[in-house]
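In this supplementary section we document a worked example of the pipeline. Step one takes a protein sequence of length 275 as its only input; no multiple sequence alignment statistics are reported here. Step two produces a three-dimensional model, which step three serialises into structure tokens for compact storage. The input and output of this example are shown verbatim.
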Amino acid sequence: MTNITNIDSGQAGWDGVINTNFKNLNNMVIGGRNYFSLEKFKRSQYREDYLEMPSVNLQLAANTTYTVSTNIPARDDQGTQDLFAGNAGFKAVSGTNGVKAGSPLTVTTNNTGILQISVRNVSLNTGQYHVQVELGDKATDWRPAVEDTAQVTDTGWIRDGITLMNGAKVYSNFLGDTPAFRIIQLGAVDMLMLSGSVNGIAITKGWNLTLNVATLPQLVTDWFSEHQMVNTHFDTRAFGVQYGWNFYNGKIQLQYCSETSDDTFWINFNHVFIS
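The serialised model returned by step three reads:
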């Protein structure tokens, strides 16, 4: 596997959780197979009928024992779980088919061989939490599924294509005087990074007031369109003034949140998006 720790992590501003996870992937010795693929979960998930949790069905061997393990913790009361596993169509009950960190669950498939995995209240897309499904009745150290260990692809910083609107002055904390974007993929983990700042933006006091800041190139808008976002609203701060911002109709859009700003404020739009 490519040594992803060489991909300019300091400049990119990845948070510690993502950075640590990447390093763990890079240094891990791949052992037996993990049948739970995050890529498959993202591509094929559905909502089960009982609690409408995001779920995926794994086609495994019939009448065979598998062990499901995770690092997702239990709730504070230790009685409610957020990960469940069982034969397809099961009814989720924490004490019966719930799985939590340190307490793996052994499941024997029925004649169909379909194992259902369901999760709630946590995202599997950030790299913080993981799930493992392995043959047999023992849980071993987590390793990524084969489908999730693709080589790293990296566009590098692309400094053209982002067009500022409303005559805003251009400035970037990281890259000089031009806003930029970068797309990195490691198996099932995709990242889109935007870098840049603007000033000369004034937003009058009031709620639900928005201002388009920049248009994005087709490669970036396609990325947003093709990926499921856990949260489509993102916050940034500039000199104590808090703005909400999101991606809408091919544009970066700022929304006033706390107090009136005038055109002397710098507004950063540096962010990492994880699919």
